[in-house]
Amino acid sequence: MSTSDPKGYSASNIQVLEGLEAVRKRPAMYIGDVGMRGLHHLVYEVVDNSIDEALAGYCSEIEVWINEDNSITVRDNGRGIPVDFHEKEQKSALEVVMTVLHAGGKFDKDTYKVSGGLHGVGVSCVNALSEMCKVNVYRDGKIYSQTYHIGIPEEPVKEIGVTDRRGTETIFLPDKSIFTESIYKFDILASRLRELAFLNKGIKITLTDRREVIQVQEETGEKDFLTKVFYSEGGLVEFVKYLDSARVPMFDPPIYISGADENGETPVELAILYNDSYVENIHSYVNNINTYEGGTHISGFKKALTRSLKAYADKSGLLNKLKIEITGDDFREGITCVISVKVAEPQFEGQTKTKLGNSDVAGIVEGIVNKYLTYYLEENPVIAKKIVQKVILAAEARTAARKAREMVQRKNVMVSGGLPGKLADCSDKDPANCEIYLVEGDSAGGSAKQGRNRSFQAILPLRGKILNVEKAHPARIYDNEEIKNMIIAMGIQGIGTEELSLEKLRYHKIIIMTDADVDGSHIRTLILTFFYRYLRLLVEAGHVYIALPPLYLVKKGKEEVYCWNEEERKMAVESIAGGDESKVNIQRYKGLGEMNPEQLWSTTMDPEKRTLQKVTIEDTIQADLLFSMLMGDEVPPRREFIEQNARYARIDA
Ligand code: 0RA
Prior knowledge:
By secondary structure, this protein is an alpha+beta fold. The protein has 3 domains: about 210 residues, Histidine kinase-like ATPase, C-terminal domain (Heat Shock Protein 90, 2-Layer Sandwich), CATH 3.30.565.10; about 160 residues, Ribosomal Protein S5, domain 2 (2-Layer Sandwich); about 140 residues, Rossmann fold, CATH 3.40.50.670. It is about 40% helix and about 20% strand. The protein contains 20 helices and 28 strands. Strand 14 and strand 15 form a beta hairpin. The radius of gyration is 28 Å and the shape is globular. The site of 3-[3-(1H-pyrrolo[2,3-b]pyridin-5-yl)phenyl]propanoic acid (0RA) has 13 residues, from helix 3.
């Protein structure tokens, strides 16, 4: 094809338009969804390209701005996207990268790998889904620029000036006709960028919120905006210490392991810490993506951990007097670990495509971890002994726990139908149709029982204290009446990572319903902590919800409007009394018990009218930190942390 062939140009352009059109037609296929998650995903997609440039060794700094209009700017000091003319496509390389699907890695194949975001879709998708996008490339002393509208270039790449800097700057405004959300959340971006800084040591990442003015300089009138800088010299070692900042470590520094397969490919890196809690806290990443469903890298790690610790314990005679068997779980009680692998062609599986499927990775990780851990334990006998002793305690406690559980299950069979006396069960027996409300308090439980639709809604009132599982030993879980009742009522066979099975789950919706006050939110957190630590699978499978009772009832004569927030309250007063608060009666609901059964049904339980929030484990790092801080022993960091991170598991509607 000759460079002057106009057909070549138009043919490639038609392809480009078709590609962009496909993305706009089915955005969810490319970025997951068009809600909060998808909106933020756009930023990660752009930042990932800069991270790749940094991993290639050409970029040390990435700056991200949330602009006043909720557009985003991402700037790096890398080599700059190439702008040279692309013969085949008849346009600048920059234009190809920005408009052709999956074009990101076409150039410079050896050094530039497209790791991509979760879906690895590339920056052209971000472009297609933006009502405006502009890229400035600083390269060879010049500034090049191109602007796009829903992915289509306004004009060819232009040289617009000279510069002494280097790098790429992308500005984009997500298309409001595609996304259901348009407001960026600083905390969500901060959390991901912090994670990226830990995972990729040495890269400085700055996040600035131009919507939040912190201070105005008196003399110059210059504004200081809310800014956070994320930078980690120590990488994963600092990451595990950060994760355990509310726990008491058993040793310091953390164990650090890094290696690769025999060809020097598939780099594996991990850091391990043990603390005095009973929580197993393993976070894993593949190409910087959080694989929270686990996968082959995790199985390889677990195998090697068990094998090397077992071998050491056997050899050192520490197990000589032990009569009981040690299981894999015992070796991981109180562990905090981050594992990060880079895989050339990752296969993602599972419900949310966050489970690594590549089978060869298991052996690679197992080999590296086994070799280094064996050596580490030999070299550090004091620490090794501490770990083994903790494992023995875990095994003993687990044996005790099993006895307690068996007793629960036996008792269970003897009582009528085996269900807790407090449970008001539903008549339908098909779990897919059934819901259980976990209701705090006596009177609310009573109202819920009267107000419910008994064919498919079951009520379990929680009256006593719910155990704080963050502090309690797993063996004590079954001692707690309320937790025991929940487990039996839900029909769950066991708890933890290995015994939990959803096969006999009796309800597909488990709905936590608590008061809208401090006590209520405390109880909700206790229940969520239990679910997060021991029934993670249940949450991951999307069975757990939070009921949202209304906060206000605005009344004038016969007219009644329920409101779920301040804004709705104002709107209600506006619509029924022209905005005059003195003409209406406003009732603030603090407790569920203030509603009669009919009210509770129509506002909070009727599937036609209620609002449920599904609990998702979107951000496992933040969830873990929050639960460990809220519920753990270390008091001082708590208050500040709660204030800064009101978000635990992300709750989606
Ligand atoms: C391909 C080749 C080269 C750089 C890049 C891509 C590149 C892409 C992005 C995206 C965001 N920031 C980026 N920085 C660089 C290198 C070509 C060369 O100079 O040899």
